């Protein structure tokens, strides 16, 4: 369990994380979602003590990370696939990391096998692709068999097969009762992997809810109705129900359930050719939430370039 | 990996220990090729320089004690070269962690950061001390046998010889740790090497060029000056700083550099 209370990080005048409070529960995959620069990585770095909070605190299983007697057995973190000396082999890197906690070569070989790095284990890390670096970072996180795992953008640089592997791995870790915190700026990835989502934007928590609930709450529920009697049909309802004419025989309806719409049509004797609830996607929900909070908008950048006279 | 395995208390499975940190730093030091190369160059260069001096030093007409002094001087001259590569290596041992990002892995494994730095310093000091012994004793045998062909008499049993050779190795090791401390403060390879070379090589020259009493006083307490007392046997039975004083002054330098490095490491974001 990870608990952050009033967590704040300032770099000079810039607030990277602004009074953030959240809890990450065990047995679930919790997704940390937000655009680049939202404060996801900074928050994760504060969890494992790499950055010191300006104010507030964050604990893992009730203790500040550095107070644990066996930090690597408590928390496994992949924060940056490149946080590895490039001149060292993958095996020696893991051996050196493990040695701090008395973890030996047998466990190192286990995590190498688990992450599919056997063939490159004795090669220098400097020659690794981003994908192999991610696998090595995940191997390092698993070394201490920790109950809490933190992965910052773990699927970056992975091929589709690797992405699926990470997804199964994190789901499996959560199923074993571990606490898993996973960050991504890709909503589609989160929708498939996470149980619970914390949305960050400009250093603030914008939403903190189960995936389903977030989709339901933040997106419009629209019902698509296809009928040759579109005009008659729409006149059956009061102002609380709104209609959008998509085509001559196709309406998008907001403000009524499919059941209400179907019942009304039956009572009026109007034939319906289609009655489809359209569930809003997580992506839609996410964009809606972060709409005002994307730090660097495309438009903003274009304006900046224009102003600078580059183009 | 079942849910049941998670209920085992972490303490029962071995936590973060000093021995573990030392082992980790030893693995790190030996598993990077540049370390091996730097030490190899240090040994070859150090003994090589002493050999050249052994070939060219004349001992004609000197007392037995002064002959021994000169042999030891030739044997420890290689340290001038060795301290250069050791100080560069000392900076790189830590700055390499910053430039590659490895420092974040290191500090995640050892979040009470100064312990990781102390372990790194201890391992580096120990390995460099052994390398230093190889250089000083190797140089001594090479220089002594070369100079013996021209009549210089000297043996390991002569007064002060062993102490000078061991002192030289200790000097090399402490110069390495001093550089490691500077590297920790500066965090960059280029900056750290510049600062270290500046302190070890340039500062003595600069202060020697300033024609003032205070400059001469400062020069006497620079790391290479106080360290010199650890491995030199003064000619004509002359007196300088004695080896133990030299060691103590050098330890002050090391403590200041490493202490500042540790304080900054603990305070800064990684």
- Structural class from helices and strands of chain B? mainly alpha
Domain tally of chain B? 1
Number of strands of chain B: 0
- Taken as a percent bin, the fraction of beta residues of chain B is under 5%
In N-to-C order, the SSE pattern of chain A is EEEHEHEHHHEHEHEEHEHEEHEHH
Distance between the termini of chain B: 32 Å
CATH class of the largest domain in chain A: Alpha Beta
Series of H and E elements of chain B: HHHHHHHHHH
Specify the overall morphology of chain B: globular
User: Taking Cα atoms only, what radius of gyration of chain A do you get, to the nearest Å?
Assistant: 24 Å
Helix content of chain B: over 70%
Q: Biggest interface, which chains?
A: A-B, 42 and 40 residues
Number of helices of chain A: 12
How many strands, what sense, and barrel or not for the largest sheet of chain B? none
The CATH superfamily of the largest domain in chain A is known as: P-loop containing nucleotide triphosphate hydrolases
Strand order of the largest sheet of chain A: 5-6-7-3-8-9
Unreliable spans of chain B are 1-12
Q: Tally the structural domains of chain A.
A: 2
Distance between the termini of chain A: 50 Å
Give structural attributes:
heterodimer, A: alpha/beta, Rossmann fold, Alpha-Beta Plaits, 2 domains, 13 strands, about 35% helix, B: 10 helices, globular
């Amino acid at each position: 369990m990870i608990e952050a209370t009033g967590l704040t990080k300032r770099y000079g005048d810039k607030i990277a994380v602004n009074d953030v409070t959240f809890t990450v529960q065990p047995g679930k995959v919790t997704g940390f979602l937000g655009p680049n620069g939202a404060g996801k990585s900074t928050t994760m770095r504060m969890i494992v003590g790499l950055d010191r909070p300006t104010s507030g605190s964050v604990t893992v299983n009730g203790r500040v990370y550095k107070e644990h007697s066996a930090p690597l057995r408590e928390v496994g973190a992949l924060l940056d696939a490149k946080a590895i000396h490039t001149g060292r082999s993958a095996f020696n890197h893991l051996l050196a990391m493990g040695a701090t906690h008395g973890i030996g070569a047998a466990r190192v070989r286990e995590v190498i096998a688990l992450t599919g790095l056997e063939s490159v284990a004795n090669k220098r890390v400097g020659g690794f692709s981003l994908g192999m670096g991610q696998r090595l970072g995940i191997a390092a996180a698993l070394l201490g068999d920790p109950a809490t795992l933190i992965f910052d953008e773990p699927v970056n640089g992975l091929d589709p097969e690797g992405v699926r592997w990470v997804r199964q791995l994190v789901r499996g870790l959560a199923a074993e009762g571990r606490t898993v915190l996973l960050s991504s700026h890709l909503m589609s990835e989160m929708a498939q992997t996470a149980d619970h989502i914390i949305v960050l934007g400009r250093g603030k928590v914008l939403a903190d809810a189960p995936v389903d609930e977030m989709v339901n709450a933040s997106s419009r529920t629209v019902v698509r109705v296809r009928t040759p009697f579109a005009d008659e049909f729409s006149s059956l309802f009061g102002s609380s129900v709104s209609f959008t004419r998509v085509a001559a025989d196709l309406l998008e309806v907001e403000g009524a359930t499919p059941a209400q719409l179907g019942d009304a049509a039956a009572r009026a004797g109007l034939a319906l050719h289609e009655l489809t609830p359209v569930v809003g996607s997580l992506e839609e929900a996410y964009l809606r939430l972060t709409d005002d909070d994307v730090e660097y908008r495309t438009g903003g950048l274009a304006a900046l370039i224009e102003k600078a006279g580059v183009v | 990996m079942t849910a049941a395995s998670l209920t085992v208390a972490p303490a029962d499975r071995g936590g973060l220990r000093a021995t573990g940190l030392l082992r980790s730093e030893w693995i790190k030091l030996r598993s990077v090729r540049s370390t091996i190369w730097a030490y190899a160059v240090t040994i070859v260069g150090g003994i090589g320089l002493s050999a050249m001096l052994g070939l060219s030093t004349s001992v004609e007409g000197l007392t037995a004690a002064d002959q021994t002094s000169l042999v030891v001087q030739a044997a420890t001259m290689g340290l001038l070269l060795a301290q250069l590569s050791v100080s560069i290596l000392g900076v790189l041992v830590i700055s390499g962690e910053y430039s590659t990002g490895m420092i974040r892995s290191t500090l995640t494994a050892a979040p009470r950061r100064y312990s990781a730095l102390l372990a790194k310093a201890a391992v580096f000091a120990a390995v460099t001390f052994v390398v230093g012994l190889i250089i000083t004793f190797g140089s001594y045998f090479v220089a002594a046998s070369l100079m013996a062909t021209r009549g210089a008499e000297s043996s390991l049993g002569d007064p002060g010889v062993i102490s000078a050779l061991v002192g030289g190795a200790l000097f090399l090791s402490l110069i390495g740790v001093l550089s490691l401390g500077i590297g920790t403060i500066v965090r960059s390879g280029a900056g750290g090497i510049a600062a270290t070379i500046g302190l070890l090589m340039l500062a003595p020259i600069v202060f020697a060029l300033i024609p003032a009493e205070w400059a001469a006083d400062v020069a006497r307490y620079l790391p290479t000056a106080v360290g010199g007392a650890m491995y030199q046997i003064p000619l004509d039975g002359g007196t300088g700083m004695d080896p133990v004083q030299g060691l103590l002054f050098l330890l002050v330098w090391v403590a200041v550099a490493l202490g500042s490095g540790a304080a900054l490491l603990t305070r800064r974001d990684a």
